[in-house]
């Protein structure tokens, strides 16, 4: 498994795979896939948002919404706090 340590934005997803609607899976050239959506909606347990299984355009137009199947957390934010970095406090020569 390749690690992407140089990425500035790393998110960890936690999914309850038993909640995935398998009828929404589709076959691609390299495997079987499902589409997931990440929403910024902080939760009570320190997560930064929720993961929702995407539905087809036709299902969406008919009013069907995808199930909440998990949550996600921004890991790069935690890493910056540990490293003492703050994106907004760079000294760029501007006095404000």
Written overview of the protein:
By secondary structure, this protein is α+β, with helices and mostly antiparallel strands. It has a domain of 66 residues. Helix content is 15%, strand content 27%. The strands form 2 sheets. It has a 4-stranded antiparallel β-sheet. The protein has a two-stranded antiparallel sheet with strand order 2-3. The longest helix has 9 residues. It is globular and about 35 Å long. It starts with 10 loop residues before the first strand and ends in a 13-residue tail after the last helix.
List the helices and strands and how they pair.
Elements: E1 11-15, E2 26-27, E3 32-33, E4 36-40, E5 49-53, H1 57-61, E6 68-74, H2 75-83
Antiparallel strand pairs: 1-6, 2-3, 4-5, 5-6
Q: What tags apply to this protein structure?
A:
single chain, 96 residues, alpha+beta, four-stranded antiparallel beta sheet, globular
What does the radius of gyration come to? 18 Å
Distance between the termini: 44 Å
User: Which percent bin holds the helix content?
Assistant: 10-25%
User: Which strand order spans the largest sheet, edge to edge or round the barrel?
Assistant: 1-6-5-4
Number of strands: 6
Structural class: alpha+beta
Weakly predicted, low-confidence segments: none
Query: What is the N-to-C order of secondary-structure elements (H for helix, E for strand)?
Result: EEEEEHEH
